[in-house]
Each structure stands twice: as structure tokens, then as C-alpha cells.
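Exercise 7. Given the components listed, write out the predicted structure of the assembled complex. Treat all entries as one system.
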Amino acid sequence: MIKKTFAWISILLFAIFSVYPLLYIISVSLRGDDAFQSQSLEIFSDTSTFKNYSELFFKTNFLLWLRNSLIIATMTTIISVALASTSAYALSRHMFKGRNLMLFSLLGTQMFPPTMLILPFYIILSRLQLVDHFLGLFIIYSSTALPFCIWQMKAYYDTIPKELEEAAILDGCSSWKTFYKIILPISSPALAITALFSFMSSWSEYVVAAVILQDPLLYTLPLGLRSFQASLATQWGLYAAGALIVSIPVLILFMSIARFLVSGLTLGSVKG
Amino acid sequence: MKLFFFLILLCQAAYSEDAVRIQLWHQMIYEHRLVLSESLREFEKENPDIVIQETYRETEELRSSFQAAAIGGSGPELVYGPSDQIGPFATMGIIQPIDDLLGADFIRPFDSLATPEFLGKRYIVGASVGNHLMLLYNKKLVSRAPKNTDELIEMGKKFAATGKGNYGLVFNYTEPFFFAPFISAFSEKTDNKEFSLDLDVTALTKTFEFILELRDEHKIIPKECDYETANALFKQDKAAFLINGDWSWGDYKKAGVDFGIAPIPLISKTGKWPSPLVGTAGYSVNAKMKSDRHKEATIRVLKYLTSEKAQLFFTSRVGVLPSLISLRESDVVKSNPLLQVSTEIMKLGTPMPVVPEIRAVWDSLRVQYQKVLAGSSSAADGAKNAKTLAESQIKDMNEVLQPDASALFIKIITLLGILFLIWKTYPAFLSFLRGFQGSHKFVYYMILPAFIGIFAIIIYPFFFNIVISFSNFSLKTFQDFSIVGFQNYKMVLMDPQFYSLFLKTVIWTLVNVVFHVSIGLFLAVIIDQVMPMKSFWRTLFIIPWAVPQYITALTWRGMFNQEYGPINIFLQNFLHLSPVQWLSQPLTAFFACVVTNVWLGFPFMMIVALGGLQSIPKSLYEAAYLDRANAWQRFRHITLPLLAPVMIPAALLGSIWTFNNLNVVWLVSNGGEPGDQTHILVSYVYKAAFNLYRYGYAASVSVIIFLILVIWSLSSLRKQFKKEQKA
Amino acid sequence: MIEISQLSKSFGTNEVLKSIDLTIQDGEFLVLLGPSGCGKSTLLRTLAGLEKIDKGTVKVGTKVINNVDPQDRDMAMVFQSYALYPHMTVAENIGFALSLQKKSSAEVAKRVQEIGKLLQLDQLLERKPKELSGGQRQRVALGRALARQTSIVLFDEPLSNLDANLRSQMRVEIKRIHDKVKSTMIYVTHDQMEATTMGDRIAVFKDGKIEQIGTPNEIYHHPRNLFIASFIGTPEMNFIEGTIVGKVVGSATGTSSVLGLRPEVLKINLGELGPKEKDLGVYQIELSENLGGELLLHGHLVEDELKQNVRVLVDSSENFSKGQKIKLKTELTRAHLFDKQTGARKAI
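Answer.
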């Protein structure tokens, strides 16, 4: 009994901890002009208004940013899932010279301070004349998302018994058919997570986008949101409203694949 | 693939019009932005052959992306900003002098403040002058401006006494720019008409003491006050006086505040007037032009934006003071009482320095000043340290490292290294190529695309950084850096600050990962073994993960706000504690960063742990139950060891991410505040590269970070590997 | 006909198959029997093409198939872990190979129905593997292998994950199916009961070599060496070490030898000896195990100074108590003699 009470109390505390900041954003987004500075803890008050939302949708380029972000995030997701699922399969199933080095260097890419990569990124893209092109962002986003995606996919493939492929081969599948008729469908939880990761990383990325996209018509949501934050005068209400709307698609994605998350996020495996 | 090409075509279609496209980057506040865009549209109507694309960038960001763009050989044709950015840009050679471009006749009618010289040339055409600080008073609350500071304090106290949460004076006083005017008033030099790089320690000490007095003794300014807070308090009639610049008028007018302006009051103690920095905001021209057509169009746009017509338009809409002397007599200016007073105030001012070194001065002032405000340093020490720090930062910034013997050594080693690598990897490479025909060609085709992408996009930047870490790439050598040897590394490794930052980063990483893993594990076990509605709880705890990091960081910064943050309000209203100055004390600011990062990091670990728990056979628990193991023992002897293979890789990855997490630290602490004491290694790198222009130095720190992480992960992976072998 | 000659296979420095020669007739049910790690599974996988052949050749009919891809070998295989495709229903699992061969869906469905009936899976066709019991999964795995009607079907310890009851049921079922479909079946197991009940012939493996190949009877009654004698038969054969004293065909006096006597050939000597029978002296019982119909006695011959354990199988209707002494006899023709050093069988 004591144990149950303890569990409930702690879980409720953590629930407050994890939900409150989101409520706070909601509450700020519903306040009027300068009500950021408010000393009440209420989420909704008499002065709550949807003014910020209507301004966001009708007076700013929010919908354009949304469209741009969707294009970029979707393309990045498709590219990274396609590349990660194939190369991770090869890394998981075949021993070849330099395989361990490859795996470690994938991990190694996470170790260099990312801020210092921006300048060379820019140089590459400007040589390729891809500054101010979505294509430039696809390339950077998918290749920066790939190392983690490959690791994660490989770890999942490692848990699939080899016999399944052998059975498929004896049933008459070629290597490629084995991969896409047997392995891919089985790996759908891991694929979902890989997709989620790459979607999220490109959806909320700001620093690289700021350097590469210069045309306001190509702005993504984070860039647009940042423009509400002038050097000295942030429009908090608009910002909060935008932040909330940016978070919602990711939240929905997360919730819809929550059941996959648990079975698909494998970085190692339990040996039972 | 087809979709790709389609998209490229789409992108290009937008540019294929016949007009010249001119890019303009600016950092105008929201109200000004609207005016700019209106006047540009007007220009485009008159000049159908030119299309202008204006882009808002936050100050720091404009600086760093313009630098990056310039190195990459592109960037906007025009940059709008305050005059102090021309120093660095001109030194780097990424903007060009306008003297020849526009001619002396064009420049002559402008106020000299609007076309400051830098090393004998002019680099900016100001569209307005001013940008200076003054005292604003709310006419609803006080009838007039005080004559001197004594009166200011008296009037301020009186107003503050009228209600809880009312303040006599508010301003963004933690920012050096806002207290700089006072320094000259406390200086003993008679003719102090220039804000010099050489800080006056006595004057600085007195200024620090003065601000502390206002805050702690007279209590007329809030304990914590950033720009937004000051702004809001003034708008909500909760502050009688405000120190702010001319750019802010429009905002207050829009908010319906009835206010008057006056010079920052005379300092009663010294009998001298504070001297605000007066600058200009205007347009500079990129050193590289895409074509003569672009050049010609750029000049036309520039001339238009600084023309009488455009300036008048701005003045009438947002009330800035025009930079053309002739316009000072125009009706628009004459009929604007604010501008009249403002022009008078300007006469007390000091021209804004444009030399790049001023940045080092601001930076060291900010660092020390914030320490003084937080009470971790005395006023005298703070002033002394600010001077020393400024001097050393200026030295670092200007230092052009010369190649030493090790440079040759490195070049030879690199050459040999490359030859050795080719010799070593050639057979492997050949066998790799042969793999495409062998029986496993399937494998090779599967791996190839991903690795080409990774190599091109990640490996190139990596080697680029290694190269510049051996170079003297910095402000003065922006366009032509050379390999100088191990000097950057020597500097890093001999700097005690590096070690203290390293220690702090280790603590930061350790604390975060421990919390991530333990909270994640704790929740996972409870959800898995005790709670009903598992999927509901699981989803609930995913929320922090789903919110984009930069939103999280800024939200938590808001929540930690001393006055309006829900955390302090909760402490006050429910626990009856006094509010904590979370973000202005080094330890609590660090704590705030940790809380933020813990918040966004624990769901990942929870999910990993839940996945692991699912695959632990229930029979093991039943067996342990029969063996009379209690809950803790079951956790300790079954859950923990069986989850280890799942949690260890996750924790390792988590530690690498946390070690390199710039976002949270930078955004929550607003770039290392207070006083650069909240930095971890990566934010230090960011600052060195983008704020102090020391790319070579920053790159060498990055390489060292990389090596540290490689060693760390290799050693932990090896441990893990050994365990697996034993088992 | 499958002809394997001089086949060798190594993993690194570990040679798991050492120059195997083996011929399998069409329609034969051959069991590869041996302890784990003896190379029997590797041989099966080499036949299937899942492992490459280092040396030697494998011929099916007249064609050498060393370099034929597994897909093209016309063999089906049942895996120990079943390896059912978890994302497909039972019907899809069974029909998968056929649909890959571009058979029409009606044709596939018809075949799946047939297999379903043959293996009593008709009710389960629309279920996913995880909704099935172990025995049902086993049957699906079998069905998947049979669906293609290949001339050769390989079994890799297919019954080892089932409980004893199901195992004996499936044994019969597989045997029945073999009689019906007449494919060549090669069956790997470490269970000698499965081997003797199912195999037309048994090849006994040890350390990458075939120790003996023959019908179950040959293997049981004429084990070629000590290893096979001990590996085949439950309860295990008794081995009594000693030195030859009298005159025995084929071995000199004084050589150390091992006498092998299966527990069931030891009888209680009530005083009468048959024509070929011989008295073994007094036996002291140390323990008796009740196997249901029979009692398994553990004890030793009193004359034996080494007190080597000897098991005797007697009818359970008789009563024996611990420490009781009885006299034993046996038929010499059913005894086996092995060389102690080489383990090879010697004539008596």
C-alpha cells in the first residue's frame, strides 16, 4: 500500500514537472500584448484571448513557414529513412573489413561540437550553389541525422534472428527481396522511430537553417519564430503561440507512434 | 529523385525573373521593419528592374551568418545595422568603403555621426542618427523629469512607495550599454568626449557602486531587470522612470503611454552629465558584388534608402532623427517635440566607437559587471578585472599568430600522414571497389549512398576544422589565414580557464546523465510494474521530448524569471519563501540550465528503459519473489543488470549529446550569463568563434573536445565489450 | 540422388566438417545424428547453400551445386526456431514461396488449403504466428517447407523446442508425410530416439566426421565403436573395462578391452543357461529406478574390483530391494567388445 502511494505521488509530481512548461506556453500565448509580465499562476484568465493566434495566422507568414517546414522535414525524413534502413542492414548483417571502424566513426560524428560545423557546411553548399535552396538543407539535415538513425536501425536489425532471412532465401527471395519483403515490414517499429527522429531534428533545427536560408520566402518555422524575437523587444505572445503550434505536430507524431517507441528504440538488447 | 529535380526547378523558377535581386539583411525592431518593407515596395514599384529581399536577423546572428556567407563567397548586397558592426566587418574585409563608391558629394550632406570613419575610410551610410539613451518619464505618474540623481532617487522612492511592485526607475541595467553613460559622469577627466578602449578604473568603480546603491540602498530599481521587464513595467504604469533609447518611442506610443523625455539626470555627486553613446544605424555594402548590374542596383537602393524621401518617411512613422542635416529643419522634425529634446540630449553624447576591439570591452565589462551585481566581486575588483580582461581580450583578438617551427613540422607530418593513409588504405579501398562485383555486391550498394552523404557533409567540415585549428584564422586574417603550428593548442592547454571549463563540463554532463538515467529508469519501472493505464503515462512523459529544444530553453528561461517566472511565484505564494534570483547567480543559473536539460532529456531514457523492461522475462521476477527478494533487491539484482546492456549505450550517447549541448546552456543563460560563469566547453567555443572571431582558437578547442569524447567513448565501449565477452 | 564427396568446411581455424563422403538416395529419410557442435547442422546448411563449401563437391542428380544460389537449389528447410515470418498470417507464410514463383493467387490458395488440411491447420490460416502455440508453429513451419513440393526437404532439429508428448506425435506425423510425399528428407537431430524411430538410415556424426552410417538396426546392434555404442540406446549400454584373459577371436590375450552389454540383454540367472548364454556372477543392487513397465537396476558385479556401474533392465512386476544380490547371465552374441585404446569394435 505504502509502495503504491509512493508510486502515485512521485508519478504525479513528475507529471506536473513534465507538463507544466507546456501549459505555461499555452498560458503566455493566450495573454494579451504585454501580459507576459504577469504575477499569477493561472493558465486561463479573464483576459485570455486568441488574438495572438489570429495575428499569427493572418498577419504573419506563418502558413508559408509551416509549408516550408513540412516540405523540408518530410523530404529529410524520407531520405534518412531510406538511407539509414539500407546501410544499417548491411552493417548489421555482413562482416567486412572496416565495419567496426565505420560504426565507430558514425558515433564519432556526434562528438565534434556541432557549432563549428556550420561554417564549413556553408562553404560546401555555396560551392555547390545550394545556398538558399531546400536541397541544401535536405542534404545537411539527412546526413547529420543519419549517424544516429543508422545506429538505431542497426541495433534493431541485430535483434532479428538470422533464420528469418535464411528461410526467405530458401523460399526463393533474392537479397533485395528478403530485405524489403521480410526485414523491412518486421522493422516497422524501428523505422517509425527513425522517421520520427529525422523529422524532429529537421523540424526544429534553427542554426543551420539560419545560415543557409536567406530568402524569407524559404523560411522555416524556427526561423520565422525567431523573427518575433527582436534584439531588444520580443513579441512573447506571438512567440508562444507559434511555439505551441510548432510543438503540436511533433507531439501528435510522438503520440501516434508511442506504441512503437518502446519496442523500436533499441540501442542494445537484453539478453534474457 | 524526380521529386528532387522538381524541387530544384521550383526553387530556381523563383529567381528566373529578369530583375536584379538585391538582398538586404537588417536587424530592425518590429515597428521599423514594417516601415522598411513599405518603403522598399514603393521603390520596387518605381524600379521594376530591381527586386529587394529584406531579411530580419537578430544582431548576433546577422553578424555570424554574414561572416559565414562572406567566407563562402556570397551574402547580402546590403547590411543594415548599428555603426559598431562596421569595425569587425571592415577588418575582415567583407564590406567595402563607400567613399569611392558613392563619392564625396553624396556623403557631404550627412551628419558626420552618420558616416563615421574607420582607419581613414567610411563604411556605412547612416539612415538615422541617435540610438542614444535618455530618461523617459511617465507623465501619468510623475509630472516632470528630475533635475539630478538626488531628485531622481527621491521621486523614485516616492512612487515606489505607492504600491507593491512599483519601481522608481527601470532599465536594462545588467547590460553594459545601458550603464556606459554613467562612466563618463564619474570620470575625473575634464574633456571626456570619447569612449575609449582604455577603461578608467576609478570611474568604473564609482559607476558600479552607484548602480548598486540604486538597487540595494535606495531600492528604486528592481532586483532583476532585463529589457523586456523594464519595457513591460513602464507600459503597465508600474515604473515612473525608464532609461531607454530613441528607438523605443514608437512602441510606447502604440501602447498609449503618455511619456516625456529628458537627459539622463545630472549626477549630483560629481555635477557632471552622463554621456550616452550616440551612433548611427545605416547601410553597408558587401565587399563582393555578384555583377556590375548588382553593384549598380545596390547603389541605387542605398541612395534611395538614405534619401530625403525615405528618411522623412521613417521619421514620420517611427520618429527617428534623420541623418541628413537638411532634414533637421523640416516640418516633420520641427513638429516633433521628442525629436527636438532628443537632439539636445544628443549634444551631451559621445560618438559610438566603431573599432572592432570595442566588442572585447563590452564583453569584459558585462562579465565583471554581472559579477559585481551578483555580489561575487567587489566594485573595485570588478572594475580592475574588467580592465585587465578587456586588455587581454583585445590582445587575443588582434593577435596574428606567426608561423613557428612547428608549422613546417605539421605540414610535413600531414603530407606524410596522407601518403601513409593512402598507402595503408589503398588495398582496403581496392577491395572495397572490388566488392561491387563480388558476391556481396548487394551489401556495398546498400552502404554506399549513406556513406557518401556522411563523408561529404560531415567528414569535410571535420577536416576543415582540423586544418584551421593549426592556423591563425581570426579577425585580422579573415581572408588569408595561414598554418602557424601548435600555437592554438598550446594556448588552450596552458590556459587555466580551459581546465575549469572542462571540469564544469564534466560535472554538467555527469549530473545531467545521472538524472536522465535515474529518473528515466525510475519512471519506467513504476509505469511498467505499478501503474494502470501504462500507455497514458508513457505518452504523458514523452511530452518534454517532443517540444523543440530551443522552445524548451526559452520557455524555461521565462519560468526562471525572478519576478514573473512561475517558479518564483510558486515559491512566494505557496511556500512563502523569498524569490530566488535564478539567472543572475552563477550557481543558480547553472542549476536552471541543469533543470531545463533534465526536463528535456529524461523521456528518452525512460523509453529506452521501458523497451528493455519489456524483454525481461516475468519468470525471473517470480523466481526472485519466491526467493523472498524485496522490491529493491529485485531491482538491484534483476532489473539493473539485465537493463545494463540497453542503458549503457543510451547513456553513452546521452553523455556525448549533453557534453556538446549548446542550445540549452546558451539560450537559458543568455550566452553564459551571469558574467560568463555559466559556460561549458561548447558554449565557450561558440563565443570564441562567433563573438570574438577567434576561429583558429575555437577550432583547436573543438578538436580537443572531440579527442576527449573519443577517448571517453572508446574506453566505455571497451568495458562494455569485455563484460559481454565474459557473459 | 545426392552425392557429397570430400566435403570440408572451416570457420576460421576451426574445421567443422572434415572431408565428408555421403550418398543419399532419392526418397530416402536420412537422419544426421550427433551431439551438439559435431557439424551435422553445418552439413545441412551447406546442402541448403546457406554456408559456402570450402572443399569438395555436392552433386544433386548429375549436377554439381556448389555454386548454385540457395534460391535455385530446389530444397526447402524447416528451422529449429521455425523462423516464421511474424508479419504474415499462417496462410501467407505457407504461400509465400509460391507467390514468389509468380503462381496465380488461386493456385497458391489451393495449395495452402491442401497443406492446411494435411497438417490440420485449416482453422488457423488467418492467424499470425504469435497467436499460435509451439506445436502449431511447428506445423506451420513444416507446411511452409512442404508447400513448394521440392524434391528435397531439410530439417534442422525441428522438434527440439517441443515437449515430449508433442514431439512423439510430430515424429509420427513427419514420418507419415514422408511416406505420402516421397521427397528426400534429411533430418538433423541430437535425439537418438528421433533418429531411430524416423530414419531409413542414420549417419552418426562426431567432431566433423561421420562415425557410422547405416539403418537404425545396424547402428543399434553393430555399433562401430565405443562412441556410437554409448550414444545410441536408452538406457545407455554398460561398459565393463577389463583385460582379455581367455582366447578371443581377433584380440590377443592381455589386451585391455571394453565389454559392452546393453541393459536389456542382462538377465537374471535363475540357474538355467540357454545354449548361447553365459553366467556373469553375482550382482549387487545399489538403486532401482521404476520406468513404469520396467525397472532399471543400478549396481555392480561383485567380482569386479573396480565396482563399475552396471545397469540391468528387468520387469517391474518383480521386487528388488537395495543391497540385494542376484545372479546375472547374458547372451554372448549380443555382447560387444571394443578396443580400449582406439574404441574400435572387435570381433568376439
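Discussion: DSSP finds 13 helices and no strands in chain A. The first helix of chain A runs from residue 2 to 29.
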